[in-house]
Amino acid sequence: MENALWRMPARLMLRQVRDGHRPAEQTEIAHGSLQEMVQLATAWGTDDALPVCIDCRGAPAPLVWADIVALRREPTFPIDI
Question: What is the mean pLDDT of the chain?
């Protein structure tokens, strides 16, 4: 993964599921670079059911929790902000 991708604009979103018939709503919690949003999301804990996602300009779809954890474990993940 290129370093430029880690600097892509991203938004950390809280997914709120209303019921089984309506789609989930998303509320922005924070915005910044993809790196910052991955660090912020993973700082909350390791619960597999965290209702967060990251909306990144470089991604074709919002990144769900499993994607966020995988990015954090990526060998090219920058250590420093």
Answer: 83
Please state, in angstroms and rounded to a whole number, the distance separating the CA atoms of residues 67 and 81. 20
- Contact between residue 18 and residue 66 where contact means Cβ atoms under 8 Å apart: no
Q: What angle do CA 47, 58, 54 make, to 5 degrees?
A: 25
Q: What is the pTM of this model?
A: 0.80
The interaxial angle of helices 65-72 and 34-43, nearest 10 deg, is 110
Q: Are 49 and 59 in contact, with CB atoms under 8 Å apart?
A: no
Query: Given this model, what pLDDT does residue 11 score?
Result: 96
